[in-house]
Amino acid sequence: MQLEYEAYETMAIRQMHIICAEARKRWPIIALACAHRVGIVPIGHESVIVAASSVHRADALLACHFIIDEIKASVPIWKKEIYADGEVWKENAEFFINNSTSRRSGSALHANKELDKRADTEKNDLSHET
Amino acid sequence: MDAEFSQTEGTCGRVKVLFFARAREIAGVSETSLGIDGAESSKTIKDCIDLLTKQFPGLEEIMSCIVVALNQEYADQSSLVKSGDELALIPPISGG
Q1: Domain range list for chain B
Q2: B21 and A7: CB-CB below 8 Å?
Q3: Quick one: CATH architecture of A2-129?
Q4: Number of helices (H) and strands (E), helices first, in chain A?
Q5: What percentage of residues in chain B have a pLDDT greater than 70?
Q6: Where does the signal sequence lie (chain A) (predicted)?
Q7: Does the interface ipTM go beyond 0.85?
């Protein structure tokens, strides 16, 4: 089985910038980067990377979590599984959740009430740790 | 070859349409364009979708789960399109 990624590149990059800007609004992040591969990605190899730095680790970890969830919900990238006897386009559940709440209009970020609730809960949990 | 709301000469008055993933496989092309200049009234994204499904009937089966982007921003199908716009048909995504 092979994995192949396709992207609407200009919009994907634009959307990733929007997501990173939103992460910076929510958490005090020092540096942030994310990248996604396109084309064939060998099995077992990473297809996406998100890197964040912050004074306290909770903020970087929450920002990474948020960014990955948002990438899965709104960045126009598609994965195809290629088998000897056929091909299957995969579909992220996050895309359907996002589109049923926002009903195909406006920014995907407005629809993430569940993520906001979870982020607040996790922030409280992680702050007890440090 | 490209679909039209009205007959128009030249390259202006057109909306570029991009197809991705399953939509691209069904349409058989990664891009096309729709002529909108000179049409009797303003056209919406929905009007463009209707024209596209006439030109590429196979798209009908996936239209219920397609979202659209207008000039690289997600848009509602009631949004108006204008000459020079870029429309993209976005099937369910699977990055990350």
Answers
A1: 5-90
A2: no
A3: Alpha-Beta Complex (3.90)
A4: 4, 6
A5: 86
A6: none
A7: yes
pTM: 0.83
At the topology level, CATH places domain B5-90 in Ubiquitin-like (UB roll) (3.10.20)
- Exposure of B84 in the CB half-sphere (CA atoms within 13 A): 0
**End-to-end Cα separation, chain A, in angstroms:** 43
| Nearest CA distance, A52 vs chain B (angstrom) | 16
Q: Strand B43-44 relative to strand A86-89: parallel, antiparallel, unpaired? A: unpaired
Does A74 lie at the interface with B, CB-CB under 8 angstroms? yes
Mean pLDDT of chain A: 84
Give the pair of three-digit tokens for residue B32: 């096309």
Question: Tokens 């920002």 map to which residue?
Answer: A63
In this predicted structure, what is the pLDDT of residue A105?
40
